[in-house]
Each structure stands twice: as structure tokens, then as C-alpha cells.
Write a structure and sequence with these properties.
By secondary structure, this protein is mainly beta. The protein has one domain (50-71, 117-409): Porin, CATH 2.40.160. Helices cover 12% and strands 53% of the residues. The chain is built from five helices and 16 strands. The protein has helices at 3-24, 32-39, 164-168, 200-207, 339-345, and strands spanning 43-55, 69-84, 87-98, 103-119, 123-133, 169-181, 184-195, 216-230, 236-250, 261-274, 278-292, 302-317, 320-330, 353-366, 369-380, 398-409. It has a 16-stranded antiparallel β-barrel. A hairpin with a 2-residue loop joins strand 6 (169-181) and strand 7. It is globular. The model is unreliable at 1-10 and 12-29 (pLDDT under 50).
């Protein structure tokens, strides 16, 4: 864990006692008993998981081709405290190892202060300040906890693991509100923040893996929001979410790039229906991206990608679930088969799309222990990480992926 990350997370919980003293102290002083009473509300939870990935033809989450890889591990520690009825502090440290894109260090997954201005049976309104997950789609803000995912791997067309850091979380402010009525609940989240850009994963997603990058990426003010409708019985959920993530670039010495900027603006439409034994979920996304001002004709461009998946979950027996999903992704909706890209770049056309048929099985052995397995038949390589597959010309168009994972929470 970096010194800055450790200092940031530690200061959040050191500030708990200080906030307690400020807001709940008696006029003359605050004694240790008051602080102890508040700290009794501290809740700590965690999870850990170990995965195995075996692929044919390409690598995913490490050197998974042929012999397979155990290079997929997630460990999280979450803490929350409510020193006042309207104030809550929450944070999570995460260790994640998943190929070259996630090197296994300890990082701050989220850490924020949540102040609730109003909370009645009909209306809720509040603000969060700090590092928060982006409210994108149904799964982005809970994607790091294995028990909250419908499968080991989320639909890669929308929830990229190859470029997860940029779209995962930002540091800033988020307003949230909810209206609850007899015909349904409407929740709105909207905020402004600075995305995380200081990693090889983000650098590769912007520049690719074939050119030297001598400068530094700069986080710029970005915007995010989601509107969700849910029936009171939870059967139907609908959502519209979007974000505008802005990144700048400061050139280094003898750099081949100029001071440019990158913008990523996905729009996601989400729908889910839940019955007693089964659930159906579908999400569709348009993903606009724009490179500008880099002084490089091969890089300065804009395009709109397209994503879609349809997923069914069936609860076979108590503790057993099966999942079936079809998922597709096009890097450029105007070049779905990748032929224009291949003609212009010389790289394989199949690097511009991916079609994935997934079947999986989950066994909740106990409320705390879960075992999952799944198989993917994939046509195309658009969501493969170039860090795990540095030679794009060596990737295979049709390939298989098998994954297994055991998870524990407390």
C-alpha cells in the first residue's frame, strides 16, 4: 500500500473521534466515555476470494493459456461508523490481483463521508464526499465484492476489467435523493469528481500498448449520474446512467505526443425483472470516446462503441443458482466487423469486437462461503487486456475461458 493511500484511509477513521467530539460533546468538554460509546457503533466486514482461470489461445487475468492461472485474488476490508444519526463514514481497502492490470497492491477502493439531510418514509436526500464508486449500470458500485456479482466475471461488454480503474471510482462529491411512493421508488444520484488515472491500466487504455508514453496523465473534473426506478415489491428495476470522464496529458521530454485530452462518455440503459425462482437482466450501452490535441493522426480520433447483454438467473434449489448470458461488444458501431480498422492499422479485425456466451453455476455452501464456476465461449478479443496479451497479432479469434472461484465473507 502506498504512503498516500495509507495516510488517506487512516485519517478517515482518526477523524471519527474528532467528529464525535465536535458534534456530540457537552458544552464544556467531551470525555472518553462519549467517544467510546460512538466507537461501539464501528462495523467491520470483509471478504476474500481465490480464483482459477483457464483459457485457450489468449490470456486473461495472467498467463491463463494452456495450464491455467491462479493469478486472480480479491481481499477487501470494509469499515463504517455512524457518529451521528445523520452522519456516516465508510471506507474499504482492497487487495486485487488479476493479471498485469491489477498488480496485487493494497488500494483505497472507496472512502467517504455521507451526510443525510432528510430521511422520511417518503423522501431521502443527502451528500457524499470523498472517494466513491461511479453509479454506472446495476453492478459498478458493488463490483468488487464477489457475493454481489451475478457471475465470477461481470459482462465484459459494459463492465470492462481491462480498463476498470478509470471507470471504477473518483474523488469528489455526490448528491443523492430518493422518492418512495405506492407506485414505485425513484432514486437519483449526481456528482462531480476527479477520476483515478495514475496506473498502467488507464495509460494503456488511452494510448494502447505499442507506443512509449513519456508524460503523465492528469485527472480533470468529471461528471456522473444515475436515475433508477424500482417497484415497491422489487420485481422491476429500470435505470439510466452516464458519466463524462475527462483526462488530460502533460508531455514528457522528447515526447511524441503533445498536450492532449481524453474523454470517455458511456450511456447505459438497464432493466431487470425478478420473480421468485428466476431473474432476467439486460443492459445496453453506447460508449463515446474522444482523443484530442495529441498531435498524432493515429491517436486523435473519436468513436462510439456499442454494448449489450441479456442474462438469466435461475434458482435451482436453496443455495444453488445457474446463470446463462449472451454478451456482445463492438469497439466502433460503424465498423462492427473490424474490417475498416484492420485495413487502416494492419491489426486483426477480431480485436474490435467480442461475442461471449456464458453458462455458470453458483453454490452458496453457507451464508459466508460461496463456490462458483463458469464457462465462456468467445468470438473476438475486444475486451482482452493488452497488458496480458502484448502481441495483438498473436491473439486468437475464437477461444474458450473456464473460471472457478471460492469466496468467503465475514
Amino acid at each position: 500500500m502506498s504512503m498516500n493511500s495509507r495516510k488517506f484511509f487512516t485519517n478517515i477513521f482518526k477523524g471519527i473521534a474528532g467528529l464525535a467530539l465536535i458534534f456530540s460533546a457537552s458544552p464544556g468538554y467531551a470525555d472518553e466515555h462519549q467517544v467510546a460509546q460512538i466507537l461501539k457503533q464501528l462495523q467491520v466486514h470483509g471478504f476474500l476470494s481465490q480464483g482459477y482461470v483457464k483459457t485457450t489461445g489468449n490470456n486473461f487475468f495472467g498467463h491463463s493459456n494452456n495450464s491455467g492461472s491462479f493469478d486472480f485474488r480479491e481481499i477487501g476490508l470494509t469499515a463504517s461508523l455512524r457518529p451521528l444519526p445523520r452522519l456516516q463514514l465508510s471506507g474499504q481497502l482492497l487487495h486485487r490481483r488479476a493479471g498485469e492490470g491489477s498488480d496485487g497492491g493494497i488500494r483505497i477502493d472507496f472512502g467517504f463521508l455521507d451526510y443525510n439531510f432528510m430521511n422520511t418514509p417518503a423522501v431521502e436526500f443527502g451528500v457524499r464526499l470523498g472517494r466513491m464508486k461511479h453509479p454506472l449500470g446495476f453492478y459498478n458500485d458493488t463490483r468488487d465484492v464477489p457475493f454481489t456479482r451475478p457471475s465470477i466475471l461481470l459482462p465484459q461488454s459494459i463492465y470492462f476489467d481491462r480498463t476498470r480503474n478509470l471507470a471504477l471510482a473518483s474523488d469528489g462529491a455526490l448528491l443523492y435523493g430518493e422518492s418512495r411512493t405506492d407506485w414505485g421508488n425513484i432514486a437519483i444520484q449526481a456528482g462531480a469528481a476527479f477520476p483515478q488515472v495514475g496506473d498502467k491500466d488507464t495509460e494503456t487504455s488511452i494510448f494502447g500498448n505499442t507506443v512509449p508514453v513519456r508524460g503523465d496523465l492528469k485527472s480533470r473534473l468529471s461528471y456522473l449520474g444515475r436515475i433508477t426506478y424500482e417497484r415497491p415489491d422489487g420485481r422491476l428495476r429500470l435505470a439510466v446512467s452516464s458519466t463524462q470522464l475527462n483526462v488530460g496529458y502533460s508531455p514528457g521530454q522528447n515526447d511524441i505526443f503533445e498536450s492532449g485530452s481524453f474523454r470517455f462518455s458511456p450511456l447505459i440503459l438497464s432493466a431487470q425483472y425478478n420473480a421468485e425462482r428466476w431473474s432476467v437482466t439486460s443492459e445496453y450501452a453506447l460508449r463515446y470516446s474522444r482523443h484530442h490535441g495529441f498531435g498524432n493522426s493515429g491517436l486523435d480520433r473519436s468513436s462510439t462503441g456499442e454494448s449489450f447483454y441479456l442474462q438469466g438467473i435461475y434458482r435451482l434449489f436453496p443455495g444453488w443458482e445457474a446463470v446463462l448470458r449472451y454478451d456482445w461488444l463492438f469497439a466502433n458501431r460503424k465498423d462492427r466487423n473490424g474490417k475498416k480498422f484492420a485495413a487502416a492499422s494492419g491489426y486483426p479485425a477480431h480485436s474490435q469486437y467480442a461475442k461471449d456466451l456464458t453458462i455458470g453455476l453458483r453454490w452458496n455452501i453457507t451464508p459466508s462461503i460461496m463456490l462458483s464456476t463458469e464457462y465462456h465461449r468467445v468470438n473476438g478479443t475486444a475486451w482482452l487486456s493488452p497488458l496480458d496479451n502484448p502481441d495483438i497479432n498473436d491473439t486468437k479469434k475464437n477461444w474458450n475461458l473456464f473460471a472457478a472461484q471460492i469466496s468467503y465473507r465475514f
